[in-house]
Design goal:
The chain is an alpha/beta fold. The protein has three domains: about 150 residues, no CATH class; about 160 residues, Rossmann fold; about 100 residues, no CATH class. Helix content is about 30%, strand content about 20%. The strands form five sheets. Strands 3-17-16-20-18-19 form a six-stranded mixed beta sheet, with no helix packed on it. A four-stranded antiparallel beta sheet has the order 4-10-9-6, with no helix packed on it. A four-stranded parallel beta sheet has the order 13-12-11-15, sandwiched between helices.
Length: about 450
Amino acid sequence: MTNRRLFGLPGFRVPMTGSPGEMRKLAAPVRVRVPLSLPGQPRLAACVKVGDQVKLGQEIASTLSRAALHATIAGDVARIGMSHAVNGREIQTIEIAASGVQEWIEARVLGSPAKASWEELTATLAGLGAATPWKPKALQESLGEDEAPAVRTVVVFGCEREPGLCVQRHYLIGGRPDLLAGLAALRSLAPESARVILLVPASLHGSLSAEFPGCELRPVPECYPDAHWRLQLARVAGVGNTTMARARAAGILALSAEEAALLGRSLREGLPRTSKLVTVSSKSLREPLTVETVLGAPVEHLLREAGLSVSAGDRILLGGRWQGHAQFDLQAPVTHETDGLTILAADEVVHRGEHPCLNCGRCTRACPVRIQVGLVARHAEFGLFQEAYALGAHACIECGLCAQVCPARRPVQQLVRFAVLKCEDCQVRDREGDPDVLDCKLPSDHDRPSAPRAEAWTAERR
């Protein structure tokens, strides 16, 4: 980590180091667990039942708008039930046990996507279960839903989510043909007036400037958190901070270079997406290893195929060192957002505890969105979740810098995240009419008490 003076105060920046290194395709696991959830999409409904036999690429869950999940191995549906997501929350999953020949479903080859009409392109993507906002006219009419916000800008992230990962860079270099095909499809699908912006690391901007016709290439600083996806998305939107959902409501469609490339591959092969690239990092590896596996593959399978072992006291993170989530179960699955698998050796693990805040202000100085992190964390620590939310917890981009710089080793990021999850969960349940959480609505500005009365006010509402 390096310090840079900003308005007389130190700012914290981490180099976005990482190189594609060795690329290895892993054998398919004997069992997968596919979550019935896609980021930013409605919950999917299973269209198979326990005991069904499925082929590779067969649709196993979908939404009314034809966004779908597919079997990533051929075999038998062993279980449909609750499991834990990467962040520890309970979600429904479908488990498939491999059996017999790994046979694919019949391909839906379009021919030449470049020459296909808009209707043919959207119909093919809907048949492949691609979660795009563009749907064929017949499907739009059958749904009878309100028209989704028009796409005015398409943002493709060719930069990594956090330091040490190499997934998006692979598609900018080795997987460029698929990325070019995917960007061409996005250009055909988007309105003619829409902009297609590809964000790339600054060091690659010059060499790639002529490689992606029809796209606006923008260089991204190769330091963290300046390269953080939410900050870059906010910069495109011309605001200080935003989320993927809010950007979409404003007409901005955001996706990774991997998602765009696999869209191009699906159109070329006529088969749905089943694979995922993951950067595996460990103290025992000389450099990060990029592996290709299937969605739903368990962590245990990746470790075994990569020749890595886990000892007592080690930590397994799905993600990188900054935004990754520690896993308690080696059966945790690889999902669409799993760009990294990081093994922290026992001597690298920082043990955080319930230590008092020192009021040093380092967390606030490190925060790229200027949240008063220490104050928010203390409110969350004592159950004042509404107050923490109102003080800006919801603006957190979960970059992890605050926890990294805290000299007291407080779990500040986890406390802020907990306040957000608690309040948003109450809001959802309140909209669903749950009478047990009607008093958990966030107070309005005129109803919010001053800090000295906050504890008594919260006790009364409880």
